[in-house]
């Protein structure tokens, strides 16, 4: 990454989940980590209902909590940018942990750097594969059990799980247009459009 680097293409994969749940995006390198969190929430279809952390090596970023009982305080994600992680740790892969109970581990691979490009219209969703698991399903093991139950009418928990989760849940079907629109809306919020100036 050079001083002229303005954006990066990232591939984000939900660890230990089958079928694969993956998103590929282009984001500004100066994106704050709390905003990267919101970007991933929209890109995957999560509901932003739980705590999160980013980590690379031994360093963690999140929202510091004075009542934290986990034994560590993360660095403030609102004060750090994606490029800061790269400069400070040299990481080419970063982890994003969402929901400390279910422990959804998103593996973020920094795939390609872009130099001297505009960041208008970023973040941008390039690719989406696999539907996001339902919230509070019990992490990767619970999700596997959920899929087994809803796909087998003879499963003892089939009816309960079918009614508990989203109607007609198909792990392979993703509403890409809805995810794109949600990610694009963030760009409109964070990067104000230039106002046209009137000439007399």
UniProtKB/TrEMBL annotation:
The Plasmid pRiA4b Orf3-like domain is annotated at 7-177
Q: Which Gene3D superfamilies does the entry mention?
A: MM3350-like
Q: Which InterPro entries match?
A: MM3350-like_sf, Plasmid_pRiA4b_Orf3-like
Per its record, how is this protein called by name? Plasmid pRiA4b ORF-3 family protein
- From which source organism is this entry? Bradyrhizobium zhanjiangense
